[in-house]
Amino acid sequence: MTRYRLTLEYDGSAFVGWQRQDNGLGVQAALETAVEGFCGEQVIVEGAGRTDSGVHALGQVAHLEIERDADAETVRDALNAHLRPLPVTVLDVVEVDEDFHARFSARERVYLYRILNRRPAPALDGARVWWVARPLDMAAMAAAANVLLGHHDFTSFRASECQAASPEKTLDELSLARCGDEIHVTARARSFLHHQVRNMVGALQWVGHGKWSTNDLANALAARDRRAGGPTAPAQGLYLKAVHY
Amino acid sequence: MTRYRLTLEYDGSAFVGWQRQDNGLGVQAALETAVEGFCGEQVIVEGAGRTDSGVHALGQVAHLEIERDADAETVRDALNAHLRPLPVTVLDVVEVDEDFHARFSARERVYLYRILNRRPAPALDGARVWWVARPLDMAAMAAAANVLLGHHDFTSFRASECQAASPEKTLDELSLARCGDEIHVTARARSFLHHQVRNMVGALQWVGHGKWSTNDLANALAARDRRAGGPTAPAQGLYLKAVHY
User: What pTM was computed for the model?
Assistant: First the structure.
């Protein structure tokens, strides 16, 4: 048996999310079918993050184990051939030790959230950004984002269906950058709660529109109540950018 | 009558190109229909560049004249409402003098060509880049690009169906930049021949793969014969980025 670490890019709008679901194709199932097409083996492909339906990946990481002896490049090219024409691509394959686990070995996850902040709708990137027509005060958002940094109980920004044992997480980065008409939010932590990034971005949008001050955001965090946490930003603007080990 | 200058973004994969065609929807026709929906007037919308089928725009410019008296923002928002759900957006509208002509007043056109240079296929940007799997020598391409700068007879990089009176053009910029796994080629000139950017990029790809030297590219230019000019890069990687007046 050989274990491989895969780095993946995918267009979330084509899938019901990472995980196998009854109502459509998951990225995980697409990969498992490709593995079977390549070597005839039925395996479980474990991912570092369970991205929701519509959430994209620039650098999702997964691992799998197969009997077939093949070098990493062969595995990459074969899986890519069997994945066609689905919009998921294996960017990189590396042989790893049998104690490597895509989910449990991950030291850090990095998400990118793209907000297109301009009045005209996107013609090119409709399914790739959150289009916010009204001007956002990025400086206010960036300042407010700092209150979320560090170790907190993030219940206010946690989906009700979240299965994590604890609502406490340590947020290492929540930074904003202007990129043409877009605002790029980068969120970095060892791990995140379900919908945490989308909920934090939704709350920052309220700050950007002047509906909330930095203090309101701090109070929302302190409330430890999802009903106090503001709106959820849509899935289509979110990208799992990288996972570090 | 008021004349307006429009700045446009569109996804070329949804259109047969800028111009009205018998075989599908042109961006021009889409805009003219939107104008009629807005004010009931049948007008001609003139564009700065006649982009081909599949070629995108980040900053195409067009002009039109209507009887209806409306401020520029109203025209922009109304046209955008009538263009939905087509992937073409009016980014900006400005009132201009009656001697402004989108095509004939243009001082400079800037095109961007995106090459994705990596072995795995694109999962997210399939219709937005030219995917070149084999590694390209960008330094060799950038050096060779310099032989095309300046005033030349560009017959070797001109489509046979080109209607320009003269094959002589002045190329002011042909530069390359690395952007992650992408190579971005920027081409800047007062005007271009039909397919000129795509043909130049196709020739640069041969240089990047070592099939041609800088000298071969110079010879191709000197031949003044399209058959000597190398391949044509696909439409989907090309963007009309800006038009300057």
Answer: 0.93
